[in-house]
């Protein structure tokens, strides 16, 4: 008999975990609250008392994903000493993520693509998550002693890599983005921003 993973005792956490897995694997619109109920083992009545509507559940899932992203990226970056190498560790972190069998792209880009036009709250939270990532890169770029205008360029490389890896089903986009980041970082360190050569 296969060993079952122990579910959290907290019904709210069970619902969020189940919804996260279902939304990420199948898409938000394709998953109904009945699917979440079945996967979480929480009654429909209890589920709706915790999350009055699907948008509130989607936001809870995005908050969970934001924490996972922030903690995972921070751990990857903090494990490296040199500021330049910390910037490149972002792409190493992406490479590990892209290689996972469960990788289906950025959950925030996916949610924005599905619900952004109809859910201002989901669109706003997706934007907030992306701004948070850019702010983290601004701090890291400043620590590396280069112009902070490099940060949005590095962010775009990371975002493009996430989308490309999801569409291609290959982790190669991370190594391509890393090599492009090296070029941009070295140009910025030399005082010749890529856009002004």
UniProtKB/TrEMBL annotation:
<protein>
    <submittedName>
        <fullName>TetR/AcrR family transcriptional regulator</fullName>
    </submittedName>
</protein>
<keyword id="KW-0805">Transcription regulation</keyword>
<feature type="domain" description="HTH tetR-type">
    <location>
        <begin position="9"/>
        <end position="69"/>
    </location>
</feature>
<dbReference type="InterPro" id="IPR036271">
    <property type="entry name" value="Tet_transcr_reg_TetR-rel_C_sf"/>
</dbReference>
<dbReference type="InterPro" id="IPR009057">
    <property type="entry name" value="Homeodomain-like_sf"/>
</dbReference>
<feature type="DNA-binding region" description="H-T-H motif">
    <location>
        <begin position="32"/>
        <end position="51"/>
    </location>
</feature>
<keyword id="KW-0238">DNA-binding</keyword>
<dbReference type="Pfam" id="PF16925">
    <property type="entry name" value="TetR_C_13"/>
</dbReference>
<dbReference type="Pfam" id="PF00440">
    <property type="entry name" value="TetR_N"/>
</dbReference>
<dbReference type="InterPro" id="IPR011075">
    <property type="entry name" value="TetR_C"/>
</dbReference>
<keyword id="KW-0804">Transcription</keyword>
<dbReference type="InterPro" id="IPR001647">
    <property type="entry name" value="HTH_TetR"/>
</dbReference>
């Amino acid at each position: 008999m296969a060993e079952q993973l122990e579910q959290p005792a907290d019904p709210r956490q069970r619902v969020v975990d189940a919804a996260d897995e279902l939304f990420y694997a199948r898409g938000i619109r394709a998953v109904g609250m009945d699917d979440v109920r079945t996967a979480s083992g929480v009654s429909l009545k209890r589920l709706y008392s915790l999350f009055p509507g699907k948008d509130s559940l989607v936001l809870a899932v995005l908050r969970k994903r934001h924490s996972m992203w922030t903690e995972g990226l921070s751990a990857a970056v903090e494990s490296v000493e040199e500021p330049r190498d910390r910037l490149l560790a972002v792409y190493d972190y992406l490479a590990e993520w892209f290689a996972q069998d469960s990788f289906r792209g950025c959950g925030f880009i996916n949610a924005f693509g599905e619900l952004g036009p109809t859910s201002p709250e989901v669109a706003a939270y997706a934007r907030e998550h992306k701004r948070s990532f850019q702010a983290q890169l601004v701090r890291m770029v400043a620590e590396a002693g280069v112009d902070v205008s490099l940060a949005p360029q590095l962010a775009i490389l990371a975002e493009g890599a996430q989308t490309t890896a999801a569409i291609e089903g290959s982790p190669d986009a991370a190594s391509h983005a890393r090599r492009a980041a090296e070029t941009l970082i070295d140009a910025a360190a030399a005082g010749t921003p890529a856009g002004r050569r």
